[in-house]
Automatic annotation (TrEMBL), chain A:
<dbReference type="InterPro" id="IPR019405">
    <property type="entry name" value="Lactonase_7-beta_prop"/>
</dbReference>
<dbReference type="InterPro" id="IPR011045">
    <property type="entry name" value="N2O_reductase_N"/>
</dbReference>
<keyword id="KW-0732">Signal</keyword>
<dbReference type="InterPro" id="IPR011964">
    <property type="entry name" value="YVTN_b-propeller_repeat"/>
</dbReference>
<dbReference type="InterPro" id="IPR051200">
    <property type="entry name" value="Host-pathogen_enzymatic-act"/>
</dbReference>
<dbReference type="InterPro" id="IPR015943">
    <property type="entry name" value="WD40/YVTN_repeat-like_dom_sf"/>
</dbReference>
<feature type="signal peptide">
    <location>
        <begin position="1"/>
        <end position="27"/>
    </location>
</feature>
<protein>
    <submittedName>
        <fullName>PQQ-dependent catabolism-associated beta-propeller protein</fullName>
    </submittedName>
</protein>
<dbReference type="InterPro" id="IPR022456">
    <property type="entry name" value="PQQ_b_propeller"/>
</dbReference>
TrEMBL record, chain B:
<dbReference type="InterPro" id="IPR028082">
    <property type="entry name" value="Peripla_BP_I"/>
</dbReference>
<keyword id="KW-0813">Transport</keyword>
<dbReference type="InterPro" id="IPR051010">
    <property type="entry name" value="BCAA_transport"/>
</dbReference>
<keyword id="KW-0029">Amino-acid transport</keyword>
<dbReference type="InterPro" id="IPR028081">
    <property type="entry name" value="Leu-bd"/>
</dbReference>
<keyword id="KW-0732">Signal</keyword>
<dbReference type="Pfam" id="PF13458">
    <property type="entry name" value="Peripla_BP_6"/>
</dbReference>
<comment type="similarity">
    <text>Belongs to the leucine-binding protein family.</text>
</comment>
<protein>
    <submittedName>
        <fullName>ABC transporter substrate binding protein (PQQ-dependent alcohol dehydrogenase system)</fullName>
    </submittedName>
</protein>
Length: 328, 415
C-alpha cells in the first residue's frame, strides 16, 4: 500500500529510503503539516524530528485536523473545494468530503462528527456529516469566514469572519447564530480553553487577541503585544493554542516571527519565542511536551519545548507550511 | 476582456453617458449576494434595519485616450462595480447588527458638471459620497457643502494639491496621491540601486504633475534624473515607434526610463523600442498602483475572487478604490452603529481605526490631510513585483508615512 501510494505521487526514487524510515516511526507521535504552495503534506516523526513522508494532497492544502482518536487526518484542499480524509497510519487517502467552496479552516465536533467548515469565498459555514458526506446545514456568516472553534461540550461553534471582524457564535443544536461579537481587524482563529470558560480570538491586522467569557459572550480582555525592534504592524496574531491545564497560551505572531507565551490566568504576556518567518498555526504534541509552529516564509516548523518555553529545533518541510496537527 | 475588445469602437468613443436612471440603481440595492442570502430565520430580516447608510458615487468619465490597447479597454462599470461589491460586503457584515447600506451612482459625461449629480444624491438623502471627478470639480463640490454634514471620499483624483494647499476638511482621500505612487516606486528603485533615471513626460498637464512628483521623489530618496524629455511624437505613434523611439531615447547612460503618461498614449510603446536595453517604470512598465488583478497575498485573492464572481472581470485600481471607500464607511459603521456623518467621520479619524485592505498591514487616515495611508503595489502586466514601503525605510510612527506627504511636510490647513 505504502509503496503504491509513494510511487503514484512521483516520489519513486525516495520510496525505498522513506519506507525504511517510516515503518519504525509508526510507534511515535507524528506531525502532519500542510504545505500550501507545494500541494503536499509533510509527515514528521516526533522522535527523530525528521520528515518521513511527503504526501501529495489536493491543491492548496491549508486547514488540518485529526479525528478525536487520532486515526484520521482531515485536510482542507482549498482550490479543489473538498475536504480530504487520510488514514494517519497508512497515509492513504480514505475519502473526500464535500466542503462548499474554498474551505480554509474547520473544526470537528468533540464527538468526531459533524465537521464544521469555513467557506472563505462564500460567506458560509458548511456543516457536513463525516460518516455519509451529507450536508447538514449551511450557516450564513460574515465576509471571509476563517477561524473555527468549538466548545469542549460541543454546544457552541464559533466562526470568525475576517472582513466583517466578528466572531459568530452558533448554537450547534439548531445551527443558529446566537451572538455576534465585534473584535479587531481580520480575526483568524477562535480557540476555547479546555474547561470551556475562555474563548480566545486572534485579530491579525488589529494586532490583538480578545479573550471572551462564554457565559456572557463579552470580551474580558484584549491582549496586545510589544516586541522591541519589531514594528507594531508586523505583529499579527494568528494561531492560538492553550494548554489543557489552562495555565499557558501560545500565540503565533505572523511576520513578527515570534510566538508569544501568555499566562492564561492573568492574561499577561510573559515571553516571546523567536521562531521561523511568518509563523502561522500551532499544534501541541498529544502529551503537550512540545508545540510546533508552521513558519510560512522559511518553509519550516519550529519545535517549542512547552515546559522550558524554549525553541529547540526547526525542521524543514515543504513550501509555505500552513497548518499542523500531531497524532499519537 | 474578449467581450470588451469586441465592442471597442462602439463603447469607448460613444461614452456619452447620461446619469444612470433611477431604475438602474435599484438593481444595485438588492445586493445581497446570491451566495449569502439574508439570514431568513433571524428576526433582523423581518424587523428591518435600525440604521441605513446611504452611499452615493459620482463618476465623471475621463477624457478618452487617443487609442486604447485591446487589453486595456475600460469596462463600462469601471469603479462602480467595486462600490457595488463594497455594498455587498457591508450588507453581509451589517446584517448582524441590523445595519443597512444602499448605493446610488451617477455617471457624468466628460464635458459635464458633476455638481448637479452630487446635489441630486444629497437631496435623495445620501450623506457619504464617493467622488471620481477632476480636482477643480472636487473642490467646487466640497466648498459647496462646506457647512453641511456630508462626508466626501475622493476615490479618483491623485492630485497632490488636494492633500496639500487645496485640502478640504470634508474630503477623505482613498486614491493614493501621485507622490505616494512615485515615492513607492522610488523606494524600490533606490533599493535596487537603479538610481539614474531618464524621465519621459507626456504632453498633458497631468503628465507634467506626475513628472513633478517623480522629481520630488528622486530628491527625497536620493535618485538622480540624468535626462528629461517631453514626448512630442503626436498622440498615436504606434506605426512609427520602431524608428522614432530609438532616436528619441538617445540621451546617454541611464539605469531606467521613467514614463509619465497617465492617459496611456505612448508609455506602452516604449519597452523594447528604446536605444539602450533599459527597463521602463512609472505609469507604464513597472507601475505604481493601489491594486492589480495579480495581487493575491494577504487574503487579496479572496477579494479578487469575490469581485470576479460578481462582475465577471478583473478588479482594477479604480474598482478597488471605490470598494475601499464604501468599505471604509462600512467598517466605521460597525463601530458607530449610527449613520450620523459626524460620528462616522470621527470614527474614520480615531486613532484605533484601521482598515484591512489585503496588503499585509492595516490602512488608516492621516489626520493632517485625510489621506489614506496604505501600501502601494509595484506591478507589471502579469505580476506584482513588490509592495512599498520597502523594508529599511524606517519611520518613527508608521513606515506607511514614508509614502506621500508626512506630517512635517504637510501644507494642509483645514479651514
Amino acid at each position: 500500500m505504502k509503496r503504491q501510494m509513494l510511487l503514484s505521487t512521483g516520489l519513486a526514487t525516495l520510496a525505498g529510503l522513506m519506507l525504511a524510515d517510516a515503518l519504525p516511526a509508526e510507534a511515535s507521535p507524528r506531525a502532519f503539516v500542510t504545505n500550501e504552495r507545494d500541494h503536499t503534506m509533510s509527515v514528521v516523526d516526533m522522535s527523530t524530528l525528521k520528515v518521513t513522508n511527503t504526501i501529495k494532497t489536493g491543491r492548496r492544502p491549508r486547514g488540518i485536523i485529526a479525528s478525536p482518536d487520532g486515526k484520521l487526518i482531515y485536510v482542507c484542499a482549498s482550490d479543489d473545494n473538498r475536504v480530504e480524509v487520510y488514514d494517519a497510519a497508512t497515509l492513504k487517502l480514505v475519502k473526500t468530503l464535500r466542503s462548499g467552496p474554498d474551505p480554509e479552516l474547520f473544526v470537528l465536533h468533540p464527538s468526531g462528527n459533524p465537521l464544521y467548515i469555513a467557506n472563505e469565498d462564500d460567506n458560509m459555514v458548511t456543516v457536513v456529516n463525516v460518516e455519509n458526506n451529507d450536508l447538514i446545514a449551511e450557516i450564513p456568516v460574515g465576509v471571509e469566514p476563517e477561524g473555527m472553534g468549538i466548545s469542549p461540550d460541543g454546544k457552541y461553534m464559533v466562526n470568525t469572519s475576517e472582513t466583517t471582524n466578528m466572531a459568530h457564535v452558533v448554537d450547534t443544536s439548531n445551527n443558529e447564530i446566537i451572538e455576534n461579537i465585534l473584535v479587531d481587524s481580520r480575526p483568524r482563529i477562535a480557540e476555547f480553553s479546555k474547561d470551556g470558560k475562555q474563548l480566545w480570538v486572534s485579530a491579525e491586522v488589529g494586532g490583538t487577541v480578545a479573550v471572551i467569557d462564554p457565559a456572557t459572550w463579552k470580551i474580558v480582555k484584549k491582549i496586545s503585544f510589544k516586541i522591541p525592534g519589531v514594528a507594531d504592524d508586523a505583529i499579527q496574531p494568528v494561531g492560538v493554542r492553550i494548554t489543557k491545564d489552562g495555565s499557558k497560551a501560545f500565540i503565533a505572531l505572523g511576520p513578527a516571527n515570534r510566538v508569544a507565551v501568555v499566562n492564561a490566568k492573568t492574561l499577561e504576556v510573559e515571553k516571546y519565542l523567536l521562531v521561523g518567518q511568518r509563523v502561522w498555526q500551532l499544534g501541541f504534541t498529544p502529551d503537550e511536551k512540545f508545540l510546533l509552529s508552521t513558519n510560512g516564509n522559511s518553509n519550516d516548523i519550529s519545535v517549542i519545548d512547552v515546559a522550558d518555553e524554549k525553541v529547540t529545533k526547526s525542521v524543514t518541510v515543504g513550501r509555505l507550511p500552513w497548518g499542523v496537527v500531531v497524532v499519537p | 476582456m474578449m467581450r470588451m475588445a469586441g465592442a471597442v469602437g462602439a463603447t469607448l468613443m460613444a461614452m456619452v453617458y447620461t446619469s444612470v436612471p433611477a431604475g438602474a440603481q435599484e438593481a444595485v440595492a438588492p445586493a445581497a449576494p446570491p451566495a449569502s442570502p439574508p439570514l431568513a430565520a433571524k428576526p433582523a430580516a423581518t424587523i428591518g434595519p435600525e440604521q441605513t447608510f446611504l452611499i452615493g458615487v459620482v463618476r465623471q468619465l475621463p477624457e478618452p485616450p487617443p487609442w486604447v490597447a485591446p487589453l486595456q479597454m475600460p469596462p463600462d462599470d469601471l469603479g462602480i462595480a467595486g462600490a457595488e461589491l463594497g455594498i455587498r460586503d457591508n450588507l453581509t457584515s451589517g446584517r448582524f447588527l441590523k445595519l443597512d447600506y444602499k448605493l446610488s451612482s451617477e455617471i457624468v459625461p466628460t464635458d459635464g458638471d458633476p455638481l448637479p449629480a452630487v446635489q441630486k444624491l444629497v437631496e435623495a438623502g445620501n450623506r457619504f459620497i464617493l467622488l471620481d471627478v477632476p480636482p477643480d470639480a472636487l473642490l467646487k463640490i466640497a466648498d459647496n457643502y462646506k457647512d453641511r454634514d456630508i462626508v466626501f471620499i475622493n476615490v479618483g483624483a491623485t492630485d497632490d494639491r488636494l492633500r496639500q494647499k487645496d485640502c478640504r476638511a470634508n474630503v477623505f482621500h482613498i486614491a493614493p496621491s501621485r507622490s505616494m505612487l512615485t515615492d513607492a516606486l522610488a523606494q524600490f528603485l533606490v533599493t535596487k540601486r537603479w538610481q539614474n533615471w531618464f524621465l519621459m513626460v507626456g504632453r498633458t498637464d497631468n503628465d507634467k504633475l506626475y513628472g513633478e512628483a517623480v522629481k520630488r521623489s528622486a530628491k527625497k530618496f536620493g535618485a538622480k534624473i540624468v535626462a528629461e524629455k517631453t514626448w512630442d511624437y503626436g498622440p498615436d505613434a504606434r506605426a512609427t515607434a520602431q524608428s522614432e523611439v530609438p532616436r528619441g531615447t538617445q540621451v546617454g547612460e541611464y539605469d531606467l526610463l521613467i514614463v509619465a503618461d497617465e492617459l496611456g498614449e505612448f508609455g506602452d510603446i516604449l519597452p523594447y523600442n528604446t536605444w539602450l536595453p533599459r527597463p521602463i517604470a512609472g505609469t507604464q512598465g513597472l507601475m505604481a498602483l493601489s491594486w492589480h488583478p495579480t495581487m493575491e497575498n494577504w487574503g487579496a485573492s479572496q477579494l479578487q475572487s469575490r469581485f470576479f464572481k460578481q462582475s465577471k472581470r478583473m478588479m482594477q485600481p479604480l474598482d478597488f478604490q471605490m470598494w475601499q471607500g464604501v468599505f471604509a464607511v462600512g467598517s466605521a459603521s460597525l463601530k458607530t452603529r449610527n449613520s450620523d456623518p459626524a460620528k462616522i467621520e470621527a470614527q474614520l479619524l480615531s486613532p484605533d481605526y484601521d482598515l484591512p485592505v489585503f496588503k499585509g498591514v492595516a490602512a488608516s487616515f492621516r489626520s493632517w490631510d485625510h489621506q489614506l495611508r496604505q501600501p502601494i503595489l509595484l506591478t507589471h502586466a502579469t505580476n506584482t513585483v513588490t509592495l512599498s514601503p520597502q523594508a529599511g525605510f524606517l519611520h518613527q510612527t508608521s513606515p506607511l508615512d514614508t509614502l506621500g506627504f508626512d506630517r512635517p511636510e504637510t501644507l494642509c490647513k483645514f479651514q
